[in-house]
Amino acid sequence: xxxxxxxxxxxxxxxxxxxxxxxxxxxxxxxxxxxxxxxxxxxxxxxxxxxxxxxxxxxxxxxxxxxxxxxxxxxxxxxxxxxxxxxxxxxxxxxxxxxxxxxxxxxxxxxxxxxxxxxxxxxxxx
Length: 126
Hints:
By secondary structure, the protein is of the alpha+beta class. Helix content is 21%, strand content 29%. It is built from two helices and six strands.
């Protein structure tokens, strides 16, 4: 099995020791995306709604770089600092998907750079 590292300027550069995404075994594994603007490197955190949109835009950038679409996602893991924002996350997510992937959601104490939400995605490569 071979693996391929995916790198794109359409999503934030890694802020730690990880790749934006790795393609292996018929899947693409996207690292957790927080609401960093890939052009400025600054957090987009005016509102939770804005953070959620930025996260999906970042995941879309990774998908584009790998020749995939959000509809190719088979599993999302959502890390959220306040489950009171869960309904808002669902509203934003509904703007990006016609059919939903499998998903887990976990409330966490904190996320990098003070983000309120982080999403990692597993894509199926057809």
